[in-house]
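Reviewer 2 asked us to include a model.

Predict the structure of this chain.
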Amino acid sequence: MATETKTKARVFTFMNDELAAGRGDVYLPGTEGLSGVLKRYVEGGENRLHCHPAEDHAFYILQSQATFRLGSEENVVVAGTGDAVLLPAGTYYRFENTGDAKLLMIRVGNAADNHGRLDPAGNPITSTVGVSREAVYAPERELPF
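Predicted model (C-alpha cells):
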C-alpha cells in the first residue's frame, strides 16, 4: 500500500502592497541552510560595520539605492534597483538607504537565522532589533499536495 507524503516545498508571497508599505524586516520561509529577509528602510539601514563569520549574504535591491561600506568605512559602493551585493562569510559591511524612495531589498543567506555577528574588533554583537516589536513573516500558501 502506497503512503501519501506531503511535500516540504513552500510557496509564499514576498512582495505585495501591504508588505511594501511596512517598515523593518519581513522574514521569509527558509530551511536549516537557507534564510531570506525582505528588508524595508524609509531611512537608515544597518549602520554599524559588522560581519557574519559563518554566513554568506546576498542583497538584491528591488527599489531605491543603498550605499554599502565594504571591508572598511573607506570602501564605498552605491547599488541601485536591479543591483545585488554578494558578501562572502566574514566580509565586514554596513549599508544605508541613500535613495529618494523607501529601500526595499531581499537578503539571502546560507543559515537559518542571522546570529553570529562580529564588530571590527572581533567582539560579538547582540541585537535588540525586533525585541520590542512583533516579528513579521511572509504569508505562505497552503499546498493541496
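The two ends are 18 Å apart (CA to CA). The longest strand covers residues 24-31. We have added this to the supplementary material.
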